[in-house]
Design brief:
Two copies of one chain form a homodimer. Chain A has helices at about 15-25, 40-45, 70-80, 90-115, 125-155, 165-180, 185-190, 195-205, 210-215; strands at about 5, 30, 60-65, 65-70. The first copy, chain A, is of the alpha+beta class. Chain A folds into two domains: about 5-80, Glutaredoxin; about 90-205, Glutathione S-transferase Yfyf (Class Pi), Chain A, domain 2 (Up-down Bundle), CATH 1.20.1050.
Chain lengths: ~240, ~240
């Protein structure tokens, strides 16, 4: 079976957490909006309705007859199927809980540049963004990252869940990498307190399939349209 | 088995979505922090660590040996066990996706009074709250509520999922009721466009177990410490 991923074609965004899992799994998938017949219209068509179950927003994964929306929901579906999550219920719920904490974190990252409204430009909410990001870098990012660091520590240091790589590890790679892109100065300081997370990030980057993916044109570069944006004025040491 | 719910004892908050399911299911549960030996300390103890899987934040449900965190994760667990969600995978994923959209919506409701930081008082971010809430009531609330209205319409009008009550219906009840508490003026206008959602809300309120719960001391009253807060200056017609 070939999965179909529906997500905006020009950003990593929330779709990237799914792309990383599909790549690490070596799964066959089509990143539909980036294909020849794709484009943004292919995503809009999905949102207009898949039978009576239209998703609220992308990403959406088509797996056979199933259309699944919300990144964390999709990862929960893919994980056990591709040996990137425990199969037993307790482990599945724990991995999903971790992913939902990352979902909350990612929303707060997004709000560093859009604290008032998604419908407004960054430039029109810059004043609020400066204040929001100040609190984010001082309190929220260290709190979330410290939490995942603690989980790594309690679990032996290498992986967040169990004794092998799972999808939350891939998401933590993306989060640390993205924060480094967006806030290079602030992260230099924050990273001192999360050595296990940084080591996990580095290890994920070197995994053969991930390394090949990152070097390929399939990996969209970070840019100022996605979740992780580099606005130097927001990056406080 | 008696479930144990760990959540702050003085607010409805995110715990309320779980209380509603447990009440409608007629399940045995202890709202630990509200019990004699409870209090806020009982929640803090859970956050300090349950073995090596400490949750990031409440609510947490203890079910036998399982500790599950994140409201949507808990509801996904409880739903099929208490006939409040489909058992088949497609239905489970669809219900969970709807709940995750509600999770996003609820976070935005929270941000109407805390757009800068949870660690600051409302009074210290009132200016930003006024601007955020303006956009929220103009665009975001109608968009989310319109989405659920559309799902109800496509599904025959009475329920969000399948042909009987499920946990997303109970959550939509809580959301419409909460928004009505927080923004009575704005909701009077918005409700004109979501008749099916309002009818669902009314139907849920009259269900015998929910009606008994709402009339009991177990239901905490809305107040200005939870997600849905009534600050008249934010409520625009």
């Amino acid at each position: 079976m070939t999965y179909e991923l529906y997500y905006w074609p020009s950003i990593q965004g929330r779709g990237e957490f799914i792309r990383l899992v599909l790549e690490e799994a070596g799964a066959k998938y089509e990143d539909v909006a980036r294909g020849e017949k794709g484009g943004r219209d292919s995503v809009s068509r999905i949102l207009d309705g898949v039978g009576n179950t239209p998703p609220f927003a992308p990403p959406v994964l088509k797996a056979g007859n199933l259309y699944i929306s919300h990144a964390a929901n999709i990862l929960m579906f893919l994980g056990p199927r591709h040996k990137l999550a425990p199969k037993a219920e307790a482990g599945r719920l724990w991995a999903h809980g971790l992913q939902l904490t990352m979902t909350d974190f990612i929303k707060e990252v997004h709000d560093t540049h859009h604290p008032v409204a998604t419908s407004l430009y960054y430039e029109d909410q810059k004043k609020e963004a400066l204040r929001y990001t100040g609190e984010f870098l001082k309190s929220r990012a260290p709190k979330y990252l410290g939490y995942f660091e603690d989980i790594l520590k309690r679990n032996g240091g290498k992986y967040l869940v169990g004794r092998s790589l799972s999808y939350p590890d891939l998401s933590l790679f993306q989060i640390v990498t993205g924060l480094r892109y967006a806030f290079p100065k602030a992260m230099k300081k924050i990273e001192k307190d999360i050595p296990l997370s940084v080591a996990l990030r580095d290890a994920v980057e070197k995994r053969p399939r991930i390394a090949a993916y990152l070097a390929s044109p399939r990996r969209i570069a970070f840019n100022e349209y996605g979740i992780f944006r580099r606005y130097p004025e927001l990056d406080k040491k």
